[in-house]
Amino acid sequence: MTARPDQKPPGPETSWRNWLFMGGRGAGKTRAGAEWTRFSVVAAKAERVALIGPTLGDVREVMIEGPSGLRAIEPHRGNRPIYNVSRRRLEWPNGAVGLIFSAEDADSLRGPQFDAAWCDEVAVWPDAETVWDTLQMGLRLGAAPRCVATTTPRPVPLLKRLVAGEAIVSKAGTDANRAYLSDGFVEQVMRTYGGTALGRQELEGELIEDPDGAMWTRSMIEGVRTANVPDMYEDIVVAVDPPATSGPRADACGIIAAGVASAGGFGRRCFVLGDASAQGLRPLDWGARVAALARQVGASSVIAEANQGGEMVASVLESAGCDVPVRLVRAKLGKRARAAPVAALYGRGKVSHVGVLAALEDEMCRFGAEGFSGSPDRVDALVWAVNTLMFERRSEPRVRRV
After folding, report:
1. What would you report as the CA-atom Rg of the chain, rounded to the nearest whole angstrom?
2. How many CB atoms lie under 10 A from the CB of residue 382?
3. Residue/partner pairs of 69-73 with CB below 8 Å, 24 or more apart
4. Looking at the domain covering 5-202, what would its CATH class be?
5. Which range, of 247-261, 301-315, 374-388, averages the lowest pLDDT?
6. Is the model's pLDDT at 392 over the cut of 90?
7. Tell me, what DSSP letter sits at residue 274?
8. Which of 58, 221, 391, 399 lies in disulfide reach of 53, CB 3.0 to 4.6 Å?
């Protein structure tokens, strides 16, 4: 009676075998799994239930003894199940038993058979597909054996299978359960992680996948994201990939700011500082955005791709009040070839995003993948900025022995 709609299993009109509940941290996944299991035992008369977690300790501490576990949610003390440590099973007063398994040992599921199963945090199971498939072979008792899987999503093969059709899917974000979470928790984590791939996965319960062939991955970007900026940069530039036309259907104008500095432990490193890209602007309007970003980050110059527009780009920026030197560059290679060395720098941890640049990151993680369409304007500007800072030789004073 107090469950949210997403915490309730598929309705009786749906013929289902597997139900997957993906949710953010604290979204009420464990409670949903425990309540469904209790209902299966008390009302649906399930007699043999498989309880599977990442480890045996997780099953006991979370699924059984935890604040939302099977013993804690039972409202009638006399009906509370008892955990039999020596036999590694949970025993209900009505004779039903919950058999405990670790996802670390798929072979332990060979032989036993069940009429219900609760699988928790399946996205972090080792060898998850083997464990899942072995369980499915044993889920064969009763008229309609069923399984619920609860997890915070990760793009692992098992979850992709379940989402693709092997299960009925429910989703919920952390915010949906804020009434039962500590005061200020949701606001704090959303301030820190909102808009990032990590936040979309861990807080909003989204399955974030990297398409095959993309030149960047979410993990590549998240691994070196930083909120701390160097005290001093060697150089800062704003790179511009100008559109050929304006209007609602025109390509966006890519506008990216980046700086280079020597970071402790990482050597020379590039920091992506801002994204002022916009679509559909007139030349003077995107020129004004470039000028404003250059002033904001203290850029020494603006790097502008001149393949489209040529000298007109420099004139637009001058008319818009850009008061730093404008250097025009021309592309001699295709977009993918230009981007490859920059993607390699990300893979080596040599480029960090300062804060969250969600639109840029979404485009990066699609660029190069099969089916990618549209002009990668943000990526183009990023590539020009990083190439300029990390690969172009700078004249530096040096001593020559005579």
Report:
1. 27
2. 31
3. 69/30, 69/34, 70/34, 70/37, 70/38, 70/98, 72/34, 73/31, 73/34, 73/35, 73/38
4. alpha beta
5. 301-315
6. no
7. E
8. 58
Q: What is the distance of C-alpha 145 from the center of its chain? A: 33
The token duo for 365 is 């993680």
Mean pLDDT of 123-143: 93
pLDDT above 80: residue 26: yes
Q: Which two tokens stand for residue 111?
A: 């032989």
Of 183-192, 207-216, 294-303, 323-332, give the range with the top mean pLDDT: 294-303
In the numeric block, which tokens belong to residue 333? 């290679």
Residues of each domain in the chain carrying CATH 3.30.420.240? 218-390
| Fold of the domain spanning 218-390 | Nucleotidyltransferase; domain 5 (3.30.420)
Rounded to an integer, the average pLDDT of 220-233 is 85
pLDDT over 60 (residue 393): no
Distance CA 320, CA 363 (A): 27
Q: Which of 211, 240, 198 is nearest to 353 (CA)?
A: 198
**Residues with Cβ < 8 Å from 374, sequence gap 6 or more?**
251
Q: CATH 3.40.50.300 in the chain, residues? A: 5-202
Rounded average pLDDT over 194-214 = 80
The residues that bridge with 171 in the sheet, in sequence order, are 22
Residues 6+ apart with CB under 8 A from 376: 254, 335, 363, 367
- And the tokens for 345? 């720098």
pLDDT recorded at residue 339: 93
- pTM (two decimals): 0.61
Q: Nearest-CA neighbor of 36 among 141, 132, 148?
A: 148
**Which of 300, 306, 304 has its CA nearest to residue 324?**
300
Give the burial class of 178: count Cβ atoms within 10 A of its Cβ; 0-12 exposed, 13-18 middle, 19 or more buried: middle
Cα angle 240-242-245, degrees, rounded to a multiple of 5:
165
Model confidence at 398: pLDDT above 50: no
3-class SS of residue 38 = helix
* Mean pLDDT value of segment 119-123: 95
Beta bridge partners of 80: none
Average confidence score pLDDT of the chain:
88
